[in-house]
Amino acid sequence: MKHVCIWGIAALMLACTPTKDPVEQKIDELLSQMTLQEKIGQMNQLNGMGMSDDLKAQIREGRVGSLLNEVNVDVVNEMQRVAVEESRLGIPLIFARDVIHGFKTIFPIPLGQAATWNPEIVEAGARVAAKEATASGIRWTFSPMIDVSRDARWGRIAESYGEDTYINAVMGVATIKGYQTDNLADSTAMAACAKHFCGYGASESGKDYNTTWIPEVQLRDVYLPSFKAAVDAGCATFMCSFNDINGVPSTGSKFLNKRILREEWQYDGLLVTDWGSMQQMIPHGYCSDMKDAAEKAANAAVDMDMMSYGYIDHLEDLVKEGKVSEKTIDEAVRNILRLKFRLGLFENPYTAKVENPYYRPEYLETAKQAAIESTILLKNDNNVLPLSNVTSVAVVGPLSNVGVDQIGTWCFDGEPEKSVTPMQAFQQLENVKVIAEPGLQYSRDKSQAGINKAVAAAKKADVVLCFVGEEAILSGEAKCRADISLPGAQSQLIKELKATGKPLVLVVMAGRPLTMGAEINMADAVLWQFHAGTMAGPALADLIMGKAVPSGKLPVTMPKMVGQVPMYYSHKNTGRPASNITLIDDIPVAAGQFSIGSTSYHLDAGDKPLYPFGYGLSYTSFEYGQPVLSDSVMKQDGQITVTCQVKNIGKYDAYETAQLYTRDLVASLCQPVRQLKGFQKVWIKAGETATVTFTVKPADLAFCHEDMATYAEPGEFHLWVSADSQQGIPVKFVLK
Ligand code: BGC
Known about the structure:
By secondary structure, this protein is an alpha/beta fold. The strands form seven sheets. Strands 11-16-15-14-12-13 form a six-stranded mixed beta sheet, with helices on both faces. A five-stranded parallel beta sheet has the order 4-3-2-1-10. A five-stranded mixed beta sheet has the order 19-27-26-21-22.
């Protein structure tokens, strides 16, 4: 009877076991044929630039799973041929590349893409990038970078979607969708890579590769949600970060890679190290040698080694010594093969020739639209912009005609000569005479020798358009600055242009926020671009001449002084929020110790930024009504609907981005003064009113507690629908 029962249960269990996914079956089959060395070979990613006999031999022997950086389609196909036809099991390679904000047609840097507040244009840009890159054989890009970045000194803020958790999630997901589509096996789909996991943006003093200390509560509330959103969006791969986090380098972190990524989030994609980050665990002081590093990375569930040679040189011994189990190796190889199957590489390993793959007119048009929407109007005194009744413009400044700088950091394959610069774009306009004189040769140029000529050009024109900012080389990886003011003699140039008395329009092209309040003060109007790509010039010409209306908004806080950094809108209130501000020059001599202030601000900078997160003007103006809630009480299993009327009270039809913020007034852990929970970019015709509608649920109000559980606490909340993170009058609601 007992036996009958046991067999009965076993039969029942078998009947209930879902049939295995066909991809998993194929993986099982392949895995069963692989030697340990072949498995370890899959875990090895090498720099594949060029085609050496040695590299071919390694591919043939099954010692390489992926190559990065080769973009010549003939070379890609030849290497693939060696893998597929000459290696024992014929497992195809995956070719990877950093396609970060475009492949050939370059889009705004990710910080600029975030400034569009338009996930659709971001997705469209990623789609273009994927179409161009896959034509060169690239099926895996190391993007999006969804590191929340709150320190403008950090050069890699350029590659991020800015300071906000929610925006990083939304833009990250849009980018992933654009690359991957909903069919990874499509020949134009490219596997995305959510990076850098995790906390890289919190590097101390904004210095690249630096240590981070992130309490788990903050990690879960601020840094992890964008990565969780990437998992939910089906992001095919993840990349470890270079930094150590609370003392453990990410590449060796069981907590991040096993507990959170694999166990909590059940992620079945591929996790790759960053370039050499396995080896870097030695100088971190976490591993004694490469063998130790390989052991720690493998046991932290890192699947693929990018350019440390740690796995290929040591894993076999580590398995034989029992320090890494074969099960661990199998798991990693499963994740790698799964990606290759999902990409359809076993069926279609080769890249077909595509006619005219790059810079198609529709790609350039999308890039131009992205550049337009990424441009932020910070100031427009007396409605200087758009220009009207202007017959001549002086086009001056070191960035007015430099293709390589406007395309920004991280565009290995972008061709500067394909950029259309502002000067070229203005020269194409009819009825506007362009008087061009850069004044400075490049942004760091300290020589003032050319300034006189720029001033002379300014005097001859109706309006001065001055293009300043940072060269591309000043932002991006390892390009951190302790002083984030305008480099070189640009400030002097602006001063002398101002002295001409001509209307002065500043166009800033930079990779990060800059502390340039003084220069902005001198200008009549300021347009800001985070390096906006191939089509930055035509976008600016359209905006300046009024063919397009600015709609970009800041995805980062613009500080007044570098000492305010890190500065972000969703800070805590403190026990002494800023009030009664007395600035340094107003302090009476010999003032008593507590005669001023005693609240949270800087004596020299006050408490406000130069411009807040979410800020951006238009040529028209918008009037926000009070948000109306469907109910002032939200139940734990319910939701409320928020509507708000936004009226275009100016003369131009334009986009406006309405932003939804909330605040938990009293909680068991202090909560930020505002948190972005949604936004809507709407087109509103002059004189018309749009109604924006948001839904807020308890999950939107949840935060991580001391026991690491994330849920919303009952109590009173504030809610804003506003034009930026500082405007609006809050309405109250209660979570029951
Ligand atoms: C960067 C990564 C990049 C990798 C491969 C590293 O230096 O940190 O973001 O994907 O190189 O080029």
